[in-house]
Amino acid sequence: MSEKSSRCFCQKANLADCQGWHDISPCVGGIAPMGFTLPHFYRSPNLAEQVEGLSPDPELHSTYLDMEPVLGAPVNAKIGIQGVVAFGPVEQVPLMAKLPRCMFPLMWLQVAAGAEGVLGIGLGIGSNFVRYGSWLWLILGLPLAARYFYRERRQRRARLLQFPH
Questions:
Q1: What are the annotated GO cellular component locations (predicted)?
Q2: The whole model's pTM is what?
């Protein structure tokens, strides 16, 4: 979160302190320093180093959205978020006075969806119809247009021949 346009998501004095996570503390009344990150702090190595046992894996923890290029419809999607709490030393509580500053993952949620079955078949048919349908209309339309113009020309000649000179 190093861009100034993201300032509203970072309540810290330094934008670099919010790098890799979205602070939602104001959304919960400022009661707890909570936020969201990608699972296992994927794409935030500085945060992942603070917690032992995490191994960010692009295959498992990345977010993606596959779009069908012709129709512009989403075909496959996956998003994962991880809820975190920011910990730090609390001088007023002796047991917590020496805590290191870190983000502690509480849980993570993953939602995935894909176009399968009838929906997938419908997207395939729709995509092919859009892709090849224009050629089909052209192939069918040109002979019909030629027949119309030929017939119109023949009827026009017949009318001209019937007109007395």
A1: cytoplasm; membrane
A2: 0.59
**Distance from C-alpha of 100 to C-alpha of 96, rounded to nearest angstrom:** 9
DSSP character string of 48-92: HTTSTT----HHHH--EEEE-TTT--EEEEEEEEEEEEEE---TT
At 80-100, the pLDDT tens digits run: 999 998 888 888 988 888 888
Helix (H) or strand (E) holding 104: strand 102-114
Rounded to whole angstroms, the Cα distance separating 18 from 6 reads 10
Integer Cα distance of 22 and 38 in angstroms:
10
Q: Residue 163 carries which DSSP code?
A: S
What backbone torsions phi and psi does residue 14 show, to the nearest 5 degrees? Answer: -110, 125
Q: How far apart are CA 141 and CA 144, in angstroms?
A: 5
